[in-house]
Design goal:
With 276 residues, the protein is α/β, with parallel strands linked by helices. The protein has helices at residues 40-48, 70-76, 93-103, 115-135, 151-165, 184-195, 209-215, 233-238, 240-247, and strands at 2-11, 14-24, 29-33, 55-60, 63-64, 78-80, 169-173, 201-205, 218-223, 226-231. The chain folds into 2 domains: 1-77 and 169-276, P-loop containing nucleotide triphosphate hydrolases (Rossmann fold), CATH 3.40.50.300; 83-166, P-loop containing nucleotide triphosphate hydrolases (Rossmann fold), CATH 3.40.50. 39% of the residues are buried. It binds adenosine-5'-triphosphate and magnesium ion. Residues 11, 16, 34, 36-42 line the site of adenosine-5'-triphosphate.
């Protein structure tokens, strides 16, 4: 189980994430929604260790990981989609995915120079890399250098690398952003398939409410850095705070109490809203 307690970060005088306490259970996909600038990506960065919290803690399976570096948190089981800058641009798609699979396992170097073991490892890693490329519909491009891929394919490779790591917690931040209409379903199918593994905890930041409605078991809403709603998708979507943020409905009576009270009241609207 992943848990944040009073997680907070201040940039100068601005509190981008404000005392967010939340638990995320295995077998659950939680959608994180809220207007632009609400603090969703910053919250992810605090969990994954890209940013250091001003206050509060992060625990994974009962162990405090707040003081760990981002790479130590990855080893502990937190899976944040790679930025493509972490890839080897001149290596092929297959080689990049195979390296990620290898990084997630004990490599042959741990067992000394046993040629049989190196060969069988290589075969198993390649097989796993092929399976993952199949899952993201990228088998046909396996020999292309990563740098040559169009944007949509690069996003698929980011997800492939995340799968290669086989983390306990999958964190997707707008995974289909910038993808064409016919590319996005590949990623959504993958997330749907991941959901079947009840040992995985999935966090999804997503603006498209139809996607959220279909995939989420639970929705939390961030607003001006604070957690203002948390509950069943249908109730949260119907709540004034979400209606106001996403559909431009009147903010009158907008209150987190309508969903699950986590804050005494809704802070004033600060973010720009985006139509789904
Ligand atoms: N490194 C930083 N330095 C200063 N301010 C920052 C930094 N990172 C984020 N912020 C500010 O924190 C707030 C939250 O930003 P964040 O990117 O987390 O929002 P978001 O909910 O992910 O928005 P979007 O839906 O547009 O992706 C914004 O006001 C942003 O300008
Ligand atoms: Mg963001």
């Amino acid at each position: 189980m992943l848990q944040t307690q009073d997680l907070t970060i201040r940039f100068g005088g601005h509190v981008a994430v404000n005392a967010v306490s939340c638990r995320f259970e295995p077998g659950t996909l939680t959608a994180i929604v809220g207007p632009n600038g609400a603090g969703k990506t910053t919250y992810f960065n605090l969990i994954s260790g890209q940013l250091k919290a001003s206050a509060g803690t992060v625990h994974l399976d009962g162990r405090e990981i707040s003081a760990m570096s981002a790479s130590a948190r990855t080893r502990a089981g937190l899976g944040r989609a790679f930025q493509l800058t972490n890839l080897f641009p001149n290596l092929s798609v297959l080689e990049n995915v195979r390296l990620a699979v290898q990084a997630s396992q004990d490599g042959p170097h741990r067992r000394g120079l046993n040629l049989w073991s190196i060969w069988s490892d290589h075969t198993a890693l390649t097989k796993r890399a092929h399976e993952i490329l199949e899952a993201v519909s990228m088998s046909e491009r396996q020999n292309a250098p990563v740098s040559s891929l169009p944007h949509g394919d690069q996003r698929k490779i980011e997800v492939a690398l995340l799968m290669a790591l086989d983390p306990l917690v999958y964190m997707f931040d707008e995974p289909t952003a910038g993808m064409s209409h016919d590319e996005a379903p590949v990623i959504l199918d993958l997330i749907r398939a991941l959901k079947k593994d009840k040992t995985k905890t999935i966090l999804l930041v997503e603006h498209k409410m139809d996607v959220v409605r279909e995939l989420a078991d639970r929705i939390i809403v961030l607003h001006n850095g604070a957690l203002v709603a948390d509950g069943e998708p249908a109730e949260v979507i119907a709540s004034p705070v979400v209606q106001e943020a996403y559909l431009g409905a009147s903010p009158q009576n907008a209150s987190a109490q309508d969903v699950a009270p986590t804050q005494p009241g809704l802070p004033p609207q600060g973010g720009r809203s985006e139509q789904p």
